[in-house]
Amino acid sequence: RQVPETRSSPQVSAPVSSPPAFLPPRAVPSVSSGSGPAPLYVVMDGSASYDPDGSIVRYVWHCGDGTVIEGVRAQHVYDPAIIPARFQVVLEVYDSDGMIHSSAVELEVY
Q1: 3, 26, 104, 110: which has the fewest Cβ within 10 Å?
Q2: What is the pTM of this model?
Q3: C-alpha distance from residue 71 to each of 9, 45, 61, 64, 65 (Å)
Q4: Residue 31 pLDDT class (50, 70, 90 cuts)
Q5: Max alpha carbon distance in the chain (Å)?
């Protein structure tokens, strides 16, 4: 009796592609003056910030004295009761993928 021959075809698998990885935005803060006498008027600018795979949808400035301001550009006056005083100004940027990045600059008021 003859047994029928079975042939199996070679297994071909399609490459599995993973979903694209989201890249975080990059906060790039700048200030008009890093130091000066009180009252120190400062313009903060986050326009150099970028997102390599999308767009930045929100800019939040933490002025270091309890003040929080939203926007690509912001203005703030530093007039501390005790001088000299140092402040850490933090820019947080949020991108269209929901990712966040922050970066800081230092100010001194004398």
Answers
A1: 3
A2: 0.81
A3: 61, 9, 8, 16, 18
A4: very high
A5: 105
